[in-house]
Amino acid sequence: MRxxxxxxxxxxxxxxxxxxxxxxxxxxxxxxxxxxxxSLTGSDTVFTLACPGHMTDLAEQYDYADRHPATIxxxxxxxxxxxxxxxxxxxxxATDQDPR
Length: 100
Known about the structure:
Helix content is 10%, strand content 27%. It is mainly β. The longest helix has 10 residues, at 52-61.
């Protein structure tokens, strides 16, 4: 499976593409419209947010496990990727903590 070399980036709460041609380049400032899962296997989950142009470029060069339109949920801590469902999307994972 062909996947890009990725550098982890902090979650900022904004849906920004962040793609770079070279590791030293600044990240793409374009709003992200796609959320890409490169791997959804066990603890080896790797994701990318991408703008339309970079989504096209990435899809031509690499193999991804899944993708869906990006929403604000995609960049929240504790978010899980809904799999084995007709509509792939990110969901906020349930916790056993009492909210009080």
